[in-house]
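Chain A, query sequence.
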Amino acid sequence: MPKMPHDEYLRFLAAASAVVGQATRILSVSELEAMAIGVPLAAAGDPLPGPDGGTIPIRSGSVDDVVQAVVEDIRDPHEASRALGSREWTLELHTADRYVPGLRDTYRRIAR
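Chain A, predicted structure.
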């Protein structure tokens, strides 16, 4: 995928039927962006729990499991998105207003 302006990248993600993320056990910003848009996300491996301690709403597991899930998801991406609920999860748990106050307090404390 070529480098592109961020707004163009978001339109590119929004047009996808599924997104395959990194097998790093954590969610990157681009993966969270895909989830917030409502595109089903898949990543091989066993992701770490979300900020609420619960399971992250993505397709995960072995490479074979993830491939099979993506094949199924692209048959009906809207249903896959609805079933995962990743858009709602992301908008509830991964917004700036949730994290900025804590970061602000931390920076104020260490800047003294």
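The longest helix spans residues 96-110. The mean pLDDT is 94.
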